[in-house]
Structure of Ectonucleotide pyrophosphatase/phosphodiesterase family member 5:
Amino acid sequence: MTSKLLCAAFVLAALLLSITFSLQPDQQKVLLVSFDGFRWDYLYRVPTPHFHHVMKHGVRVKQVTNIFITKTYPNHYTLVTGLFAENHGVVANDMFDPMLNKSFSLDNMNIYDSEFWEEATPIWITNQRAGHASGAAMWPGTDVKIHESFPAHYMPYNASVSFEERVAKIIEWFTSKEPINLGLLYWEDPDDMGHHLGPDSPLMGPVISDIDNKLGYLMQMLKKANLWDTLNLIITSDHGMTQCSEERVIELDQYLDKDLYLLIDGSPVAAILPKEGKFDEVYEALAHAHPNLTVYKKEEIPERWHYKYNNRVQPIIAVADEGWHILQNKSEGLMLGNHGYDNALAEMHPIFLAHGPAFRKNFTKEAMSSTDLYPLLCHLLSIPAMPHNGSLRRVQDLLSSTTPRKMAHTQSPPLHRGHGKPGEHEQESNAYFIGVTLGSIIVIVFFIIFFKHLILSQIPALPSMQGEIAQPLLQA
Ligand SMILES: [Zn+2]
């Protein structure tokens, strides 16, 4: 009897301990994948069986509001910092910082100046400061030295490196002797072909099918490496794409002398730096120039874009209506697809899917903000979040019940430059340690009660024997 009880007690105690420690998100592995320019509704343009498999066995968010401007570098930096562009400082693919007197240009691959990235700290660095290792296959910014650090493993950017080679590196890093817990994987399409063909082109069908096959290849390799069931895979993108046309062109030279200003960034959000003393002249010339062009003085930029409190936002921005293209003159090339427009437009929105032990199965959520991914990643990796503009509370319904969810969540206060406050994750970390402590106390208390009962059931043998001796007649 006693040995059975002891056995049961040990099983129960082991169970309690394992529950306590299975809650430890330290063990979580996360692979974040971005297919550049994958618009949310591409999933339904052609059969995409691999994406649908992930959705059926994982989660999907229908509408992801990304950040203004809906360009590649600003949005990729938001995904890994949780910050709006005015707060993380990568406000465009092409920038000029008047304080640094320096330029940044994706077109010229002049993106390696650390100072453009250091207004924020990306998650691959925070993850490593917490004692883990990060690995990145071409994710924008991961081959730039930021705050004196690189990811533990990374690939210098080279567009000609195949998807398969990038996947091979990611798998190698996740399965090495000192494995990474965070992987970041980037692929340039369907953005490249979306610009070239325009999203409405029937030729986009095969491009989307090809991305689905690439996802299938990634899934196959993860299964082969025994990672598929243990790793949390998040598939997203930076922005969508909209159809442009030769009939929808705004030619700045028609309205404005090009000697009066510098065009820092082009379409569809023209960043205009007037030459000294020419601000009023430039503004007046552009303000009512074209019915499909809205011109803002920097201080008039709508609050909802979170796009005015940064030196790298130019004194005047001119924003084209959806599908319109801004050129200085028509001798410049025109793309049939573009993005960068108002982030309230559905066509600018990317996909979001996730699969793995941390996520619910076959669950669809209506909407989220791309800033919410960062606190979710920090939560999964169990690392402290830097101040951010997202909220874990808004996306915690994506998580399965086996992951710790009942924690003290508070939304990070809106961040403005110079007014950063600690993000929500610090409180979550505290809640996690409180959980572990409480779990341990329960186990200890259980043991005390159990041994007390065990001792009491053996030591007071005399009175009970006396009781038996006192009743001989009954037994007879
Ligand atoms: Zn992009």
